């Protein structure tokens, strides 16, 4: 008897299970859904045969609908269970830069609090580093945390949310690109006057806010800016590649007639 789960009489790519995997549903959910529809189809065939229907299998297939159409409806209902899935454009085009800005603010508050606690406990940077060393160290820390670590974490989080709530892997790259565009704007630098090293300071500038400054605008095409832009995008590419690998693994398991490997997205 043909089966939605492992339909040996038909090419494996026509099964409902395979279609659900292709549309981004988790392997265990797709398998469970296909098994439930298998049971429903068996009951439907039994009722049709008991009623004396001619060609009951054709009638059952007509009632259940085409596999691709059924898979599309199941995937749409699955993805729309969450707010992200119901409003994908707002969730993955508008919100990602705002989430990055919020994450930056949170990190600033945490670092400010740590600095205050350190000061209240009697510590001082000057006791460990010179003003110039402290300025360079804090510049490197700010560049690494704000321009690379925080955007990478936000991009990873958003990429996983996209893969779990929508069937569009293109939205992964869209969300990561929005994060990268915002991340490419801030510039971290420091100023040290050899005559007055105690006045060394870190600077943060946003070239986009000064469109008349040609020197600032040229910074948008600098290697650092390109790295800040591409870091979140690279995270998105990695997530899409891992998702493709997961789907291929599940589809190969179906073609072998074995249980699908449960691979994390």
UniProtKB/TrEMBL annotation:
Top-level division of the source organism's lineage: Bacteria
Protein name: Uncharacterized protein
Transmembrane segments: 89-118, 138-158, 170-186, 220-241
Keywords noted in UniProt: Membrane, Transmembrane, Transmembrane helix
Organism: Botrimarina colliarenosi
Organismal lineage: Bacteria, Pseudomonadati, Planctomycetota, Planctomycetia, Pirellulales
